[in-house]
Design brief:
alpha+beta, globular, 370 residues, homodimer, 12 helices
Chain lengths: 370, 370
């Protein structure tokens, strides 16, 4: 407790929409929320707490930021590991900085999955156009070249159609250390969002089924159309990763499902876009559960609160009041992050809950131009 | 729309916990929230928007406050009517200032109920100790003397046990214009929370059953143990008041139920403490629906999202992390307003949802010392 007026102070590294949604959950519980972001108060999280303007790699700023925090967490995985460790020497930091090291590097991540017996697609690390060509010949085409680090929303990726694309592909990813992944003709993409508390207790949200376009999540449905076996294997993968790290907080793993086989694609040691439906559709949102875990508090139930859910991302959408009215009239829950719309930028989402959620989500997509 | 980054700007006169909860609902939808409160940014709503420091009666400040707002509303009914009308000449204000005039004065309020055919308890206006004694003799004792204006949470009230208490009672309420109300031996207190949209569409939350102690709401349960007839009459009363005023927004009416008779006690032209359970337990919270109405947007459904609800107020509670953990471990949803605890001050609430909500609410009361 920081004093009688606030229940606790939580620092979040990053002040984007995930920080904003963490903040909304935190303020409701009486947490004082503080954020660190290069955009300062103009960041989306500025609506729900003080945003200290600073680069994540600026250790002096980080030390100022964590002063007075009861716990510190992050809303994205590209926090410098050294900085996170510095913070963890002084204040409770969750999830553990160790997981950042793995989650920041596709090669370490895939190898980590394999070390725990979690199946992944076929891949090879590549460090030159020559290695890339050889890997493409062994793995076959099409195959996807991805930089090991700092890739998100489809950036830093290139699809090879032939081994002869190696030079162009290598140039396209900036000649950075990369991995080549066999193209997976998946039936669907699913993600598991799991939460682990301080005492090791774990719970799992219903699997989400995700549709990406141009590498950006467009739509999620929960529960996914998945067999009991698929669900169990996804949860088991999350359980292994969380136990492996002594993890505390929300963890997301994205999978490809192909012919009943579940291949781990990547993980995010944080709340995740494919879990935004939990705000309106789960008994406890991923944001509240993440904060509870980070503070060492008991977790809330992860089950659906009222039927199946659909989430439609608003990407580059220029909303107006007429659009909002139409979405609300369809029973959609309107979420908006306070960002200037730009192409490819996530500026909000809409959730639909109930048996006809999928049909209404399609209508929402038509309205918002997704 | 105020620009691409914000969906709209809403001004709320008052920055207490109701403002804070309106703000949480508003920020989620992308509204820029602005508040007017004598406490400035230290007000509970300071966590979710800018709080302009000012007295509600300061017209210059009010005009500055409303500049740039798409809509203005209030979180309490004691806003000066003249100030609200000044605002309404310049910007969309909801609910209509006309309702403030009635809701601020117990005598006008009771007469308004009667004019609409809504039963109330027996009462008489009193303007002197002599009138009070006469009224007490006609009405009988015990009877409750209440100032016509500015009473809330049991303040400005005195219970007469005999007509001879008239002098003492009159002194106790400061010699202010008052009404004497016959004591109602009620079976229960219930409240209806209703919402009316710009187009006249209306919806009603399940009735809440309320327990007060020392004039302060301690606990609400929804749905109330009430017959279908009682529910229908409560909704009908709200419908008449809302249609009478061309009301837009959330309206609350509190009733006494005695032997199946429903007597209107008072109304609040705003979101209400007996509706806090809607955050966790209704398909759309009273806060979101109020904002939607105020902006002229379609309303959301008012039904329960997951079983019966109980709300336990935290009054003067000095919370610590151990208390929060215990409440969460019982499945309670913890809400805290960021206020310094003082005796009789509402500093938070806990919601329980599900078939065993009442039993768990009793356990929560034991933990929080309610």
């Amino acid at each position: 407790m920081r004093g009688p007026a606030d229940v606790a102070t939580v620092g979040v590294v990053g002040g984007g929409q995930l920080g904003r949604m963490l903040g909304l959950a935190g303020v409701a519980m009486g947490l004082r929320m503080r954020f660190l972001d290069p955009a300062g108060d103009a960041a989306p999280a500025g609506a729900v707490g003080r945003v200290i303007r600073g680069e994540f790699s600026d250790e002096r700023m980080l030390l100022e930021f964590i002063r007075g925090c009861d716990a510190v967490t992050y809303e994205f995985e590209n926090v410098p590991v050294a900085a996170a460790r510095t913070a963890a020497d002084r204040v409770r930091v969750a999830p553990t900085p160790d997981v950042l090291e793995v989650a920041q590097d596709r090669l370490l991540e895939k190898r980590y999955f394999q070390s725990l017996g979690i199946p992944t697609g076929v891949f090879e690390p590549v460090g030159s156009p020559e290695e890339l060509r050889g890997a493409a010949e062994r793995i076959g085409v099409p195959a996807v070249l991805k930089t090991r680090r700092l890739g998100y929303d489809g950036k830093g990726q290139f699809v090879l159609r032939s081994p002869g694309d190696a030079e162009a592909a290598w140039a396209a990813v900036g000649g950075l250390p990369s991995i080549l992944e066999a193209f997976v003709a998946f039936d669907r993409e699913v993600s598991v969002i799991a939460v682990r508390g301080e005492g090791g207790e774990m719970d799992f949200y219903p699997l989400a089924e995700n549709v990406h376009r141009a590498g950006i999540l467009r739509r999620s449905a929960a529960p996914a159309r998945a067999s009991e076996g698929v669900r169990r294997r996804a949860e088991d993968a999350a359980r292994r990763v969380m136990e492996g790290f002594g993890y505390v907080g929300v963890l997301t793993i994205e999978f490809f499902e192909a012919g009943g086989v579940l291949l781990a694609n990547e993980m995010a040691p944080r709340v995740h876009n494919s879990g935004h439906w939990t705000i309106d559709g789960a008994r406890t949102s991923q944001f509240e559960n993440h904060l509870r875990a980070v503070l060492g508090w008991p977790l809330g139930p992860c089950g659906l609160s009222g039927g199946p859910c659909e989430m439609v991302n608003l990407i580059g959408t220029r909303a107006d009041a007429a659009m909002v009215r139409k979405v609300l009239a369809l029973g959609g829950r309107w979420h908006w992050y306070g960002k200037e719309p730009r192409d490819g930028r996530k500026v909000g989402h809409v959730t639909l809950v109930g048996d006809d959620a999928a049909a209404r989500a399609a209508q929402v997509e038509a309205i918002v131009g997704a």
